[in-house]
Each structure stands twice: as C-alpha cells, then as structure tokens.
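Trying the structure run again after the queue cleared.
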Amino acid sequence: RADSALRLLYADGWRWLVDHFLGVNVRDTNCAFKLMRREVVQGLDLHSTGALINAEILALAARAGAIIHELPVSHRPREHGESSGGNLRVILRALRELLRHRRRIVKSDSVNINN
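Done. Tokens:
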C-alpha cells in the first residue's frame, strides 16, 4: 500500500490493540474483503457500528471455531474520496468502541455456528 508513515503507524497501533484486547492477530483487520459462509455470519451477535466492526466479526467468528485464512490482496490507489482513518475523531470513536465492547466480545458464549 502506498500509505504515509503516519497512516502506517496508526494501522500498526490499531492492529496491536485489536490483537491485545480481542485476540485477533491478522495482518489487515480492516480489510473489507472477507468471504464467509452464511452460517458464520448469521451466528454472530454484532453490536459495533464503527471501525471495530471488522475486528468484532473476526473475533466472534474465531471464538465460534471458524478458521481464518489470510490471502494477499492487491491494493489500488484511491480514485475517489478520502481516507478517514487518520481523523482524530474517527480514532477516538474506534478506541471508545473497542473499550466498550471488548468484554462482551472476548467473553461471548452466545456465538454459535455450524462448521
């Protein structure tokens, strides 16, 4: 990816927080390209509405026994819009959401999928 050093630092920090608080250790938590079986998605009790949603999906799916595989993806330059990941308001909202939901995500026993 052609991200600035500051953006890469933010991404590394978020990756560390998500791994430390939720046990999700993947290279790019917020990569929106995910392929999952319907049973996995339907069994997840999702609450996040912001930047935490990808980490919540991965954490709950893994906790339910889903196997997570990472494959490389090619990134293309952004042609429209601007990234909001470096916006202080977005960062603070993501941190608040992580702190608010971490216990429920980590301790969740309500996850149920059929592998």
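Residues 88-107 form the longest helix (20 residues). Worth checking whether this holds up in the mutant runs.
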